[in-house]
Amino acid sequence: MAAALAVIRFVVVAGLLALAASVDVDVHTKPAGNASSLPNIVFMLTDDLGFNSAWNNPEQFTPTLDKLPSQGVKLEQFYVFKYCSPTRGSFLTGRLPYHLRAVQRNFIPWSMPEGLDLRYTTLPEQLKGAGYATHHVGKWHQGFFKPEYIPINRGFDTSFGFLCGGEDHFTQQANEGSHCTNNIYDLFENDHPAFGKNGSGLNDTTHYNGYTFTQHAVDLIKAHDPTSKPMFLYYALHNTHWPVEAPARFTNMYTFNQTMRNAFNGMCSVVDESVKNVTDALKAAGMWENTVFVWTTDNGAPVNRAGSNKPLKGGKGSNWEGGVRVPAVVSGGLVPPERHGSVAPGFAHICDFYRTFAKLA
Questions:
Q1: DSSP string spanning 196-226?
Q2: What pLDDT is recorded for position 151?
């Protein structure tokens, strides 16, 4: 097992170098043994959290995210698309966003008969074929007008989250870009509505998305048997997407005169706690040392909704760097200690993770 882990570490470093430099690295060696010796892959994708967040913003209380670069490799020139769905499709297919139909209108409204082209082989399909247990938690936004387009039919063994692009964080009611009314609840588990698991309002903090989705991710990790097969967990958080909402214990951390600024920063602190809970669960389950952990976000922050991309110009929906350049870090036990705290200065794009993860498998 030690020899296998040494080979995996070599592959991880090679993959990171390829990612950082945006060049191909031909890695021929594969880890010895069965599928259980392959690395776990956990990818946490935050929603609408911009460049001036986490370790880039000292006004935000994000102690876990602040420490992550010292425990891994920070991707300093990391790029995505300027809004939600194309970035997610790029990650899932390994294609640059302009290849994807989502760039036309971001799959808005959600009731349009559109989705990620079924001819693409998705990353979870690739990893599932290599023996991985594959799980989706949180936001989907890749189409759902036919059963073929939902997560469990695109390579995921399980799925828990919402299918459209935005909803109320406390009630899970669809609230943006929809032809439907706000009486529509968007919360699904695998191929059916998650009856009884939605919230009832602002006072129902137990069903806040940042809590329920994170708890589901933690439960998946606890239930996983790492000796049988590796895990691929794609956790697409809803924070910090509109509406700007967070439980009081997070908004009360901030005392700015702007109420929305306090709420947005509170949502960033929710993200930090989610990252802490997931990474703690991996360590408690004895999986961290054999895990590649990635945290990033899908686009720049909306500057008209209390987000900030300082010092970059522009924000969500903009082609300026403030819309497409975001914070990103690769951590986990398989990143060699000598790389901890390092900065990868080369250009990289979210689509590069497809090939990097496929190589690891």
A1: T-S--STT-GGG-HHHHHHHHHHHHHHH--T
A2: 98
Q: Which two tokens stand for residue 353?
A: 């993770």
Catalytic residue among 141, 169, 238, 349: 141
User: What is the distance between the alpha carbons of residues 245 and 173, in angstroms, rounded to a whole number?
Assistant: 13
Q: What are the backbone dihedrals phi and psi of residue 44, each rounded to the nearest 5 degrees, phi first?
A: -105, 115
Residue 15 pLDDT class (50, 70, 90 cuts) = low
Element (H, E) at 79: strand 73-79
Q: Are the CB atoms for 197 and 6 separated by under 8 Å?
A: no
Residue 299 near residue 84, CB atoms below 8 Å = yes
Question: What is the b/e burial string over 168-180, where b = at least 16 CB atoms within 10 angstroms of the residue's CB?
Answer: bbbbbbbbbbbee
Task: Say which residue the tokens 């306090």 belong to.
Answer: 262
- pLDDT for position 6: 43
Please state whether 332 falls in left (phi above 0), alpha (psi between -120 and 50) or beta: left
Range 189-204 average pLDDT: 87
Whether the link from the prior residue into 259 is cis, omega within 30° of 0, is: no
Which residue among 84, 164, 268, 351 is the active-site one? Answer: 84
Catalytic annotation present for 99: no
Give the torsion sign (CA, 126, 128, 132, 135). Answer: positive
Has 351 been annotated as catalytic?
no
Count CB-CB contacts under 10 A for residue 313.
Answer: 13
